């Protein structure tokens, strides 16, 4: 059982007139045997962190630090070795189906390939592909139709579920699911999570689940990491029930079930450099030192938090 461990991971994109620190010195361990949720507002760096782990960032990204999977530092592997890792060790359910589905090939062939099946052995083996689709809420008849369709013939939700099936098809020991329920109605969303939970229980070693859905993160995940402006500000196994970081508290207070008390202010603009804590300008508990110095990560038995209040 191999954990995924990030050491000072940083991803910087050069942009006109500066740079965006999409992932900013993240050190964290995602434990095997667990589903770890990653939550945080749009643009905080969730997908970039995931793509860094998979070695799928564009070549112009500056990546530093270490990403360990067992004995391998993934950042030191060759592109070819990384392809093997993606096939066998980490499967991806991408945020945008277009990133995984080839528009000019039928879904069936793509799914069979992901299953490691020879697409010519259609008749006997496509049963596996069909069953996999059925796990994601397609009826037998629908599954047959999906296998024969080109991606553009499928609705967004159908594409999303096909991509999920492809993501788990290789039997990789880790699954990274980036907003796997995007665009699905409630019933299909539940089914998606039920299936992923089963996958995790029976096949996968561990799972990273990137989601906007905080309530879901709470029910599905063993541990939740909260990202703000490229950093993980808090992680633990009762983060939603007992948030510690002021940002997490704000996020939870802004849920509809808690009266939708929107947080004041905005996250730092991409590329904006702050000397102290990145949340300090919005934080209701700011201390003078918060504006001057970055808080370290404080760890204890309930997890980790990057905030001077817990020093
Ligand atoms: N290829 C890229 N080139 C330049 N900047 C990028 C690139 N990809 C992402 N970014 C920037 O990095 C930051 C983090 O983006 P990311 O896609 O990881 O956000 P996210 O947390 O996944 O958001 P969402 O919840 O909307 O999916 C954003 O400021 C984004 O604009
Ligand atoms: Mg994203």
Q: Can you offer a commentary on this structure?
A:
This protein is α/β, with parallel strands linked by helices. Helices cover 32% and strands 23% of the residues. The protein is built from 10 helices and 12 strands. The protein has an 8-stranded mixed beta sheet with strand order 6-7-8-3-9-10-12-11, with helices on both faces. Strands 2-1-4-5 form a 4-stranded antiparallel beta sheet. A hairpin with a 2-residue loop joins strand 11 (298-300) and strand 12 (303-305). Helix 4 (107-114) runs parallel beside helix 7 (156-169) and helix 5 (122-135) packs across helix 7. The two termini are 32 Å apart. The model has no long low-confidence stretch (mean pLDDT 91). The chain binds adenosine-5'-triphosphate (ATP) and magnesium ion (MG). Adenosine-5'-triphosphate is lined by residues 13, 20, 22, 40, 42-48, 58, 95, 270.
List the keywords:
binds adenosine-5'-triphosphate; alpha/beta; 311 residues; eight-stranded mixed β-sheet; binds magnesium ion; 32% helix; four-stranded antiparallel β-sheet
Summarize the topology.
Elements: E1 4-15, E2 18-30, E3 35-39, H1 46-54, E4 62-69, E5 72-73, H2 79-89, E6 90-93, H3 97-100, H4 107-114, H5 122-135, H6 140-147, H7 156-169, E7 174-178, H8 186-202, E8 206-210, H9 214-220, E9 223-228, E10 231-236, H10 246-253, E11 298-300, E12 303-305
Parallel strand pairs: 3-8, 3-9, 6-7, 7-8
Antiparallel strand pairs: 1-2, 1-4, 4-5, 9-10, 10-12, 11-12
Helix pairs in contact: 4-7, 5-6, 5-7
């Amino acid at each position: 059982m191999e954990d995924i461990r990030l050491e000072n991971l940083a991803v910087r994109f050069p942009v006109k007139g500066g740079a965006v620190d999409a992932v900013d010195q993240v050190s964290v361990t995602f434990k095997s045997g667990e589903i770890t949720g990653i939550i945080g507002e749009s643009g905080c760096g969730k997908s970039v962190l995931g793509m860094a782990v998979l070695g799928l960032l564009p070549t112009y990204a500056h990546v530093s630090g270490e990403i360990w999977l067992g004995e391998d530092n993934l950042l030191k592997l060759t592109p070819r070795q990384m392809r093997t890792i993606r096939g066998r060790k980490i499967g991806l359910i991408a945020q945008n189906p277009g990133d995984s589905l080839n528009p000019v090939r039928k879904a069936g062939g793509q799914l069979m390939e992901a299953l490691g099946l020879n697409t010519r052995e259609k008749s006997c083996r496509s049963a596996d592909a069909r069953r996999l689709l059925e796990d994601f809420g397609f009826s037998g008849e629908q599954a047959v139709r999906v296998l024969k369709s080109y991606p553009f013939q499928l609705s967004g939700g159908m594409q999303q579920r096909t991509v999920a099936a492809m993501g788990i098809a290789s039997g990789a020991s880790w699954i990274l699911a980036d907003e796997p329920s995007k665009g699905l109605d409630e019933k299909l969303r539940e089914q998606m999570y039920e299936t992923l939970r089963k996958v995790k229980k029976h096949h996968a070693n561990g799972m990273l689940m990137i989601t906007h859905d905080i309530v879901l993160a709470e029910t599905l995940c063993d541990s939740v990491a909260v990202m703000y402006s490229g950093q993980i500000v808090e992680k633990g196994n009762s983060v939603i029930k007992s948030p510690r970081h002021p940002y997490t508290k704000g996020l939870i207070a802004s849920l509809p079930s808690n009266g939708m008390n929107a947080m004041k202010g905005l996250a730092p603009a991409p590329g904006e450099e702050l000397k102290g804590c990145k949340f300090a300008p919005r934080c209701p508990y700011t201390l003078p030192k918060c504006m001057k110095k970055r808080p370290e990560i404080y760890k204890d038995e309930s997890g980790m938090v990057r905030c001077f209040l817990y020093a």
